[in-house]
Amino acid sequence: MQETRQDRVHICEVVARDGFQNEAVFVETADKIALIDALSETGVAKIEATAFVSPKAVPALRDAAQVMAGIRRAPGVIYSALVPNLRGALAALEAGADELNLVFSASDSHNLANVRMTSTESLRAFEGIFGLARAHGKPVAVTIATSFGCPFEGPVEARRVLDFYRRCLAMGASGMALADTTGMGNPAQVERLVDAALALSPATPLGLHFHNTRGVGLANALAAYKAGARRFDAALGGIGGCPFAPGATGNICTEDTVHMFEEMGVSTGTNLSLLVSLSRRLPGLIGHETPGQVAKAGRSCDLHPAPTR
Ligand code: COA
Ligand code: ZN
To answer: Is position 150 annotated as part of the catalytic site?
Structure first.
């Protein structure tokens, strides 16, 4: 069945990677594992459990191997890991990741800030990773960061993003994601780019990775849905952000995203009450409030006692 014909939405929960990478406190390994194990029971399709990156660059995820090895694997859930280079790919495969999520940016400036390579240098490094993963029988997805704008360069041409998209598919990507690293996109732009990406390869699973940096995150998710996208990255509590992108703030919030789609009658396959209760425990782990709204306001069906006369 073509990706665009399915009505249900798949959630990829990224709080343990995108969420924690941007926190000042180190969330203890046991707490990360307990949270991921709890998320495994919520019905999310995929959990990006960690990132195999330099511990100097992202100290918050220095326990990647222990986290990946320590989590319980729920049947049907894919446990993926973000990987920037061959070294990270080797470590992720050794630690038992189900899927590698290779990341690079469509803009050279952000890719240099993030992984110290140009976009083309990243792609060149990916060739070896595809070979390695194939030998291990593991799928490789690719996320193209700054697809909707770069905090250093401004607009990124759709043509450039789509050219990279095509090259990743040619290398054998099992899935693709377009990321709005610092929330620069708008719904009209999202609709056009999703349309074009799905036209390039209708059967390739296409994920959208939105940040709510300018308050447009859910509007962008809805625009992507209307254009045919069915897979969304989201972080519990709406925390997250790239430490190498100035002004970055949280991902779209998992429970807010789920609430929106479910209220529209679009199934996400998740248990919203469970997500909300997990989200309410996050401030205890990271030491501050989170931007998510449904965890504070309650679901729209959680009514208040009417005033009496
Ligand atoms: N995992 C762990 N360590 C790694 C690594 C990986 N994937 N890749 C490189 N390293 C180590 C090297 O061994 C070296 O260690 P040393 O200083 O103790 O000798 C050090 O990191 C530098 O290696 P080098 O190959 O010169 O990399 P770099 O300094 O050019 O950095 C990255 C490149 C990709 C490793 C680094 O920029 C990075 O980890 N970025 C992460 C970005 C990120 O996670 N952003 C948020 C998500 S989008
Ligand atoms: Zn992100």
So the answer is: no
Q: Give Cβ neighbours of residue 124 (< 8 Å, ≥ 6 apart).
A: none
- pTM for the whole thing? 0.97
Q: Find out whether 210 and 251 touch, Cβ atoms under 8 Å.
A: yes
**CB under 8 A, 24+ apart: contacts of 295-304:** 295/237, 295/255, 299/259, 299/272, 299/273, 300/259, 300/263
pLDDT in tens, 42-52: 999 999 999 99
- Closest ligand 1 atom to 242 CA: 46
Q: If we measure between CA atoms, which residue out of 127, 94, 8, 103 comes closest to residue 48? A: 103
What digits encode the pLDDT tens for the residues 52-104? Answer: 999 999 999 999 999 999 999 999 999 999 999 999 999 999 999 999 999 99
- Choosing from 12, 168, 242, 253, the catalytic residue is 242
Pairing of β 10-13 and β 46-51: parallel
Length of the chain: 309
Which residues have their alpha-adjacent CB atom under 5 A from ion ligand 2?
A: 18
* Closest ligand (CA of 115): 1
- Distance between CA atoms of residues 227 and 118, nearest Å: 30
Q: Which atom of ligand 1 is nearest to the CA of 17?
A: 47
Domains of the chain: 10-297 (3.20.20.70)
Residue 123 Cβ contacting ligand 1 at under 6 Å:
no
Cα dist from 309 to 17, 121, 302, 303, 306, whole Å: 50, 70, 22, 18, 10
Taking each helix axis from N to C terminus, what angle separates 254-263 and 217-226, rounded to the nearest 10 degrees? 50
